[in-house]
Amino acid sequence: MAKEKGRKLIAQNKRARHDYQILDTYECGLVLTGTEVKSLRAGRASLVDGFGQLDGDEVYLHNVHIPEYAQGTWTNHTARRKRKLLLHRAEIDKLIGKLQESGLTLVPLALYFSNGRAKVEIALARGKREYDKRQTLREKQDSREAERVMSAVRRRERG
Q1: What confidence score (pLDDT) does residue 80 get?
Q2: What distance in Å separates the CA atoms of residue 21 and residue 72, rounded to the nearest whole number?
Q3: What one-character-per-residue DSSP string does 126-143 give?
Q4: Cβ–Cβ < 8 Å for 9, 45
Q5: CB burial class (10 A; 0-12, 13-18, 19+) of residue 8?
Q6: What is the pTM of this model?
Q7: pLDDT at res. 120
Q8: Buried b / exposed e along 95-118 (16+ C-beta atoms within 10 A)
Q9: How many CB atoms sit inside 10 A of residue 119's CB?
Q10: Which contiguous run of DSSP H or E holds residue 119?
Q11: DSSP letter at 71?
Q12: How many CB atoms lie within 10 A of CB 11?
């Protein structure tokens, strides 16, 4: 069996980038069971309600939905169980210090396979207020509008 190369995206949390101001990101492994990996390889997962939490000296991912494997038997996993994240001790210590600050949380941004291993990209984030969300949308619309105008000018110059 040939080894996988590259990055294969399974699930992405686009809502997190809208609801949170991303301060720092980390790539970490996951402790998974066999049926969870098979379900992920089928491309099924949801990060919508997921969050990371410190439990002693460990970091766990809660509420990430990996549906049960269709061909699984009594060995099937629970869909929304908490899963341990694999981080270096220095990264965990850094997260412990930062999460002591009020208003910061850990949110999953993406779940993917990197060279055959399941990885999750988590972010240290601060929740946005409603007016911040509107401001971000306005800036995005303005940049799209400017890009449209620029491309129209370039087309006229060529033609």
Answers
A1: 76
A2: 39
A3: EEPPHHHHHHHHHHHHHH
A4: no
A5: middle
A6: 0.73
A7: 92
A8: beeebeeeebebbbbbbbbeeeeb
A9: 19
A10: strand 117-127
A11: T
A12: 21
